[in-house]
Amino acid sequence: MTDAPQTPDLRDDFPDTPARRAVVSVVRAFGAISRQMGPHYAKFGLTPPQFQMLTVLNRLRNERVTQRRLGNELYVSFPNVTVMLNRLEEAELIKRTVNPTDRREKFVKVSGRGRKLLRKIWKDQPAQLESIMAGLNDHERLQLAQLLNRLIATHNQATESISENTPPSVE
Q1: Strand 106-110 vs strand 65-66: parallel, antiparallel, or unpaired?
Q2: End-to-end CA distance of the chain
Q3: Are strands 94-98 and 65-66 parallel, antiparallel or unpaired?
Q4: Is the Cβ–Cβ distance between 44 and 120 less than 8 Å?
Q5: Residue 142 and residue 144: Cα distance in Å, rounded?
Q6: Could you say which DSSP state residue 8 is in?
Q7: Contact by Cβ (8 Å): 79, 169
Q8: Which residues pair with 65 in a beta bridge?
Q9: Does the residue 170 lie in any domain?
Q10: How many domains, in total, are found in the chain?
């Protein structure tokens, strides 16, 4: 195996730029990781987005989390959040309650059953994550995380400035 960075095959009519190479590589990496994580979470009756939703809710368990906030945390549209929450609620992994001060809004939290399932998944998770990141050493893994977090932060700032100029919608 060589230490030379792998570049995607871009034999087409579009310009070959560093931005394009980076985006293509991120999209392809996401696909490769999704192919490995999908079967892993399926063993527990979840999809990767459902697992992510449960972990976000668990992280925010001491806060009142609205469906809208959950969508923002996960970069998922409100209709998709609703569909995922419906499935998690049917499986009794989450609980939704109506906000008593604004009945249009619902709060979401992980149920006891959901926390129990997360603990079970987390027993297998370290080995799965090591397998996913097998091609990188720890320094490279941290560097990748830092670069992606910087990219996310940049896009979050752009999204916030757009939403400041958009009227709020009803949940």
Answers
A1: antiparallel
A2: 51
A3: unpaired
A4: yes
A5: 5
A6: -
A7: no
A8: 108
A9: no
A10: 1
Q: Phi and psi at residue 133, in whole multiples of 5°? A: -95, 20
* Residue 156 pLDDT grade (very low, low, confident, very high; cuts 50, 70, 90): confident
How far apart are alpha carbons 103 and 94 in whole angstroms? 19
Cα torsion for 157, 75, 124, 129, to the nearest 10°? -50
Instruction: Give yes or no for a contact between 110 and 102, defined as CB atoms under 8 angstroms apart.
Output: no
Residue 168 corresponds to which tokens in the numbers above? 């709020």
Tell me the mean pLDDT in the region 137-148: 97
- Residue 156 in domain: no
In a domain, residue 83? The reply is yes
pLDDT per position as a tens digit, 22-58: 999 999 999 999 999 999 999 999 999 999 999 999 9
CA 53 to CA 93: how far, in whole Å? 11
At 107, which CATH number? 1.10.10.10
User: Which range marks the domain in which residue 43 is found?
Assistant: 33-147
Instruction: Tell me the three state secondary structure of residue 33.
Output: helix
Average pLDDT score, the chain:
88
**7 in a structural domain:** no
* DSSP assignment string, 41-57: HHTTT--HHHHHHHHHH
